[in-house]
Design brief:
By secondary structure, this protein is an alpha+beta fold. It is 51% helix and 20% strand. The two termini are 23 Å apart. 9% of the residues are buried.
Length: 86
């Protein structure tokens, strides 16, 4: 359970993250992808540039040839990383 003070601090932050992610989802150059697809892009021979968005708490890769941006929520990576450590 989150203490009331912490909840009061976290709620606006979470709302801002959700709003920023909604903006990214509506951007035609952005696409949210899953863990497997994101990892495949990381090790592919195509040239991707990192394009993380801290405000949205997402990790991103931008395809330099067409400008398409691929995003994954940071908490997905955190969950998978912590589950692999156990």
């Amino acid at each position: 359970m989150i203490p009331p003070l912490a909840e009061a601090v976290l709620n606006p932050i979470i709302a801002n993250v959700d709003l920023r992610r909604d903006d990214l989802r509506s951007d035609p150059t952005c696409r949210f992808v899953g863990w497997t697809e994101f990892c495949e892009m990381l090790i592919s021979r195509s040239f991707f540039e990192r394009s993380d968005d801290i405000e949205a708490a997402v990790l991103g890769l931008t395809n330099s040839s067409n400008g398409c941006r691929f995003l994954i929520e940071a908490e997905i990576i955190q969950k998978l990383s912590s589950s692999e450590l156990n």
